Amino acid sequence: MRKIPTSISAQFNALLNKSKIPKTYQNHYLKCLRYYLNFCHKYGFSESNTQSLPNFVRKLSMGSPIKRPSVKWKTSPWQE
């Protein structure tokens, strides 16, 4: 799995903190970001294009069942 670039990681962590996501949940968000970035790289989507996110969600729903975190996310820091 590819590593999240430092600049993106710093911005994402700042957004999580600004959105008051508890520290115990932030690793789950970072894991999802890593999956998303890998998806974009693998399938040739632009990471910054908003149209790539629906394709990512569609791909997740089509794939084999994955173990989902037991965390019930009530907030999405990127949708303010």
Q: Flag low-confidence runs.
A: none
The helix-and-strand class reads mainly alpha
Strand content: under 5%
SSE order, as H and E? HHH
Distance between the termini: 28 Å
Largest sheet: none
Mean pLDDT: 81
Radius of gyration: 13 Å
How many DSSP H or I helices?
Answer: 3
Report the count of strand segments: 0
Overall geometry: globular
Percentage of residues assigned to helices: 55-70%
Structural summary, described in words:
The protein is built from three helices and no strands. It has 80 residues and is mostly helical. It has a domain at 1-47. The longest helix has 21 residues, at 23-43. The radius of gyration is 13 Å and the shape is globular. The model has no long low-confidence stretch (mean pLDDT 81).
